[in-house]
Backbone:
């Protein structure tokens, strides 16, 4: 693969979408071939699945939820991620497979080794070159309660956060944990410190 994949992870309200978009615009401004995608919404099918996952009025069984996220991921990988990596683009993903391990594995309690296996199948073994985990204290997280996940109790988010920290510990080379600062620009400076060496290594680009 000629391209490079950078994923952003973190609990809801950690500022992941803001920071991943900031990175996208910064790289675009430097004229790099960069693509921004979000999970689970990134493909047309994924956008439909996202509506069900976030706003279904009917209860969704946890295993059905898992399979819906995986279906959206498989579609995104085949339709957009693989072709884009083959073209040599820099892909910025707002969430990828670590979200499923953190939310459905640690959060919902589904067998983690099963999730790891299923993730590998639906992603065809693609692994991000770099994953940025935005870590923020649960007390300072503002959840709007606007969707199924944001209505989960704090105990759910405690499990998800613990999950993310364990994922980071077992994938030290790939996952870089950044503590979220009050100032968004300061957080972005920290992100740049891990992104630049990664891009230099994979693309031999200069900054
Ligand atoms: P978003 O708020 O980043 O758009 O993500 C939508 C919600 O879906 C968020 O609460 C996290 C959750 N989610 C999972 O539970 N499992 C997954 O695999 C993904 C990608 C997201």
Residues:
């Amino acid at each position: 693969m000629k391209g490079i994949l950078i994923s952003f992870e973190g609990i809801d309200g950690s500022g992941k979408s803001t920071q991943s978009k900031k990175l996208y615009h910064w790289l675009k401004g430097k004229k790099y071939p960069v693509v921004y995608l979000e999970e689970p919404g990134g493909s047309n099918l994924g956008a439909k699945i996202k509506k069900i996952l976030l706003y279904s009025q009917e209860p969704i069984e946890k295993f059905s939820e898992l399979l819906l996220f995986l279906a959206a991921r498989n579609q995104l990988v085949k339709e957009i991620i693989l072709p884009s990596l083959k073209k040599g683009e820099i892909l910025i993903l707002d969430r990828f497979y670590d979200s499923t391990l953190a939310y459905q594995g640690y959060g919902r309690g589904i067998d983690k080794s099963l999730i790891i296996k299923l993730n590998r199948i639906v992603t065809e073994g693609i692994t991000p070159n770099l994953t940025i985990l935005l870590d923020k204290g649960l007390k300072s997280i503002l959840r709007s309660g606007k969707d199924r996940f944001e209505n989960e109790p704090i105990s759910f988010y405690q499990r998800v956060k613990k999950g993310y920290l364990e994922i980071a510990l077992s994938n030290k080379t790939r996952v870089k944990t950044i503590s979220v600062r009050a100032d968004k620009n300061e957080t972005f400076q920290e992100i740049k410190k891990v992104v630049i060496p990664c891009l230099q290594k994979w693309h031999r680009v200069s900054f």
